[in-house]
Specification:
It is a single chain. The chain is an alpha/beta fold and 203 residues long. It has helices spanning 78-84, 112-126, 150-160, 173-176, 189-200, and strands spanning 56-57, 67-71, 88-90, 95-96, 103-109, 134-141, 166-169. The strands form 2 sheets. A 5-stranded parallel beta sheet has the order 3-2-5-6-7, with helices on both faces.
């Protein structure tokens, strides 16, 4: 896999320049996390369908939450986020079909396989394969400590253009050791919780 961002899907934007408008520095994803990074609604025709698609299923529970966490692969970090950012429920690695909330947040690890799984889920939504879903965005959870390799950073940037919003959660060693997420919250959880609460608040 090459280190450059591929240009294979016309519905995904090209890499953004480092500078902003009028020479002002562009804010980071974390600083502007509630702002759109990609399409707010499915595009339908013209979007390639993914090779692998998430199932559509009725969740085990359907009460007391504002959004669904949908892990796009096993070990994405949904159970940890469910405790660290209260308000959502685990949809069980499937698009939820229920009479409750239809707001969905995709969750993936920052490994190559995890990001590709997120891309497949984004294509599934964008192509219109799933309906009645209000996709809020994607949370990418670090799969390892330290600086992310360029090839993976490019993949995350690519997929961020296919979902409405992107949030990133860093590596938290105590989480790996099974300690309580609430006792070891990285600062990135605060804007994530604030954004999701605002986005799912009744008008």
């Amino acid at each position: 896999m090459a280190g450059d961002v591929p240009n294979v899907n016309p519905w995904l934007p090209q890499p953004r320049p480092s500078g902003g408008l009028n020479g002002k520095p562009r804010r980071s994803v974390q600083e502007a996390s509630a702002e759109l990074t990609g399409p707010a609604a499915p595009q339908g025709a013209g979007v390639p369908r993914p090779e692998r698609a998430l199932p559509v299923a009725r969740p085990r529970t359907d009460a007391g939450h504002a959004w669904w966490w949908v892990g796009v692969h096993g070990g994405a970090g949904v159970s940890t986020l469910e405790r660290a950012v209260p308000g959502g429920r685990d949809a069980g690695r499937a698009w939820p079909v229920s009479g409750g909330s239809r707001s969905v947040v995709l969750v993936a690890r920052s490994s190559a396989n995890g990001i590709r799984a997120a891309q497949n889920a984004a294509q599934q939504w964008a192509s219109g394969m799933v309906t009645g879903i209000d996709l809020l965005g994607l949370v990418v959870v670090a799969d390892a400590p330290g600086r992310r390799p360029k090839v993976l950073q490019n993949l995350v940037r690519l997929v961020s253009g296919a979902v409405p919003r992107l949030w990133e959660i860093p590596w938290v060693e105590p989480w790996r050791l099974g300690e309580s997420p609430m006792a070891h919250l990285p600062k990135e959880c605060a804007p994530l919780a604030r954004d999701l609460t605002r986005l799912t608040r009744p008008v």
